[in-house]
Automatic annotation (TrEMBL):
Residues 253-262 have a biased composition (Basic and acidic residues). This is Enoyl-CoA hydratase/carnithine racemase. PANTHER family: ENOYL-COA HYDRATASE, IP11341P-RELATED. Pfam families: ECH_1. It comes from Mycolicibacterium cosmeticum. It comes from the Bacteria. Belongs to the enoyl-CoA hydratase/isomerase family. Residues 253-286 are annotated as: Disordered. GO terms for molecular function: catalytic activity.
Length: 286
């Protein structure tokens, strides 16, 4: 199923649901019989869904979730002991071709159930993460004879520091959603039924009340800041401000605030300091 608000005919996905409403796209990993394990073309379909959301200016925020009862169980172990021994031509441990951080729009992970291995690292690539309190989470690959993937060795030290990253990656232990938030992997731990509504509330607030160019530029700078000095961040903030101050949205935000009405933005959801490009294979910096 794939529901979009335009005349474009989108082929139905086998492993995902995509729905767009009110500026918010919801991508649902949809292999519930396999606890939404990555398989049957899900990697390629998720990359395609991300690209579609990136290209649609009417989409202001994206929510990634899983068909209950799980978020994503990681790799599909249906091949048994051969699961990790036949990588195939062109193998990459990147997870999917389009990491969530490459989109100009915020991507919110609504981790409504278990998130194991690649299932957790897909969520870590998102900008905001909300966990079900009782979800089991972990980067368990060292217990399967391989290692964490999907840039987990780059993401985790930057999100939670070297010591916590080492505990997660080197032990492969699982922990619940409450502990995930305590460790700094997410912002909220809620009852599983509340996770998607909470993510949608944030996404709709972004879609309704924030300036598209401002959010795009701020997201990109946040992710790029991992590789920038303090001085470089300051220079980027100045450059972004100069671009935004020349657009009517910088006036509209103040007008709407003073008039106590919803803003009417005219900018596109694109960082104005960079040329418009599609999300790139292999990730790159955001």
């Amino acid at each position: 199923m794939c529901a979009v608000p335009h005349d474009e005919v989108v082929p139905p996905y086998r492993t995902l649901l995509l729905d767009v409403d009110g500026g918010v796209a919801v991508i649902t990993l949809n292999r519930p019989e396999r606890r939404n394990a990555i398989g049957d073309g899900m990697r390629e379909e998720l990359a395609d869904a991300y690209r579609r959301c990136a290209a649609d200016d009417d989409v202001r925020a994206v929510v990634l979730t899983g068909a209950p009862p799980a978020f994503c169980a990681g790799a599909d172990l249906g091949a048994g002991e051969r699961t990790f021994t036949e990588p195939g031509a062109g193998f990459s441990a990147a997870g999917i071709e389009v990491p969530a951080w490459t989109l100009d729009k915020p991507v919110i992970a609504a981790v409504n159930g278990h998130a194991i291995g690649l299932g957790l690292t897909l969520a870590l690539q998102c900008d905001i993460r909300i966990f079900a309190a009782d979800a089991r989470c972990g980067v368990v690959q060292v217990r399967r004879g391989v290692v964490g993937d999907a840039y987990s060795h780059w993401l985790l030290p930057r999100l939670v520091g070297m010591s916590v990253a080492a505990e997660i990656l080197l032990t492969g232990r699982t922990f619940d959603g409450r502990r995930a938030v305590e460790l700094g992997l997410g912002s909220q731990a809620l009852d599983s039924a509340q996770v998607l509504p909470a993510a949608l509330e944030i996404a709709r607030d972004i879609a309704d009340n924030t300036a598209p160019m401002s959010v795009a530029a701020s997201k990109r700078l946040l992710w790029d800041s991992f590789g920038l000095t303090r001085e470089q961040v300051g220079a980027r903030e100045t450059d972004i401000h100069l671009h935004l101050m020349g657009h009517d949205d910088a006036r509209e935000g103040v007008r709407a605030h003073l008039d106590q009405r919803p803003p009417r933005w005219t900018g596109r959801p694109v960082d104005p300091t960079r040329e418009r490009t599609s999300p790139q294979k292999g990730g790159g910096s955001a």
